[in-house]
UniProtKB/TrEMBL annotation:
Ranges for domain Peptidoglycan binding-like: 64-122
Name of this protein: Putative peptidoglycan binding protein
Annotated InterPro entries: Peptidoglycan-bd-like, PGBD-like_sf, PGBDSf
Membrane-traversing stretches: none
Signal sequence, start to end: 1-41
Gene3D superfamilies noted in UniProt: PGBD-like superfamily/PGBD (1.10.101.10)
Length: 147
């Protein structure tokens, strides 16, 4: 009988540890979900998910730096585009002006915000067959572009 009791205690301990681990994981996901659900910009550590968020004036971080790099690449190809943005990760007036020029050129809703529609074009450099030599593929991939 003592062997059964000991075995039951081991199972109870294992079950309890599993439940605590699951509860901790669920709490972590709940906290992460509530923070991610409210935020409009991805943290720099999650730069691979930049395309899932919107960015506008006042935003900052690695994703904004990727946007600036992409806009600099497109800039010379767009009349009135800005191609000499400082890549500082700060979504300031120059970055907003470059986004507006980009959106105007591509016939998008012009709001100065990098959202899903703007990301779709920023992530699509091909204007013909094959890769293009002027496009910053590393910044695009770091942003989560599927290229």
């Amino acid at each position: 009988m003592p062997e059964q009791s000991n075995e039951r205690n081991i199972m109870t301990t294992r079950t309890m540890r599993s439940r605590i681990a699951l509860a901790g994981a669920a709490l972590g996901l709940a906290i992460a979900g509530s923070v991610g659900g409210v935020a409009t910009a991805a943290p720099a550590a999650a730069a691979g998910q930049c395309v899932d968020y919107q960015y506008s004036a006042g935003g900052d971080g690695g994703c904004v730096a990727n946007i600036q790099t992409l806009l600099n690449a497109f800039g010379p190809r767009i009349p009135g585009g800005v191609s000499n943005l400082e890549v500082d990760g700060q979504f300031g007036e120059q970055t907003r002006a470059a986004v507006v020029a980009f959106q105007t050129y591509w016939g998008m809703q012009v709001d100065g915000v990098v959202g899903a529609e703007t990301w779709n074009i920023l992530c699509a450099p091909q204007m013909g067959p094959g890769p293009v030599d002027w496009f910053p593929y590393d910044a695009a991939r770091a942003s989560g572009c599927n290229i």
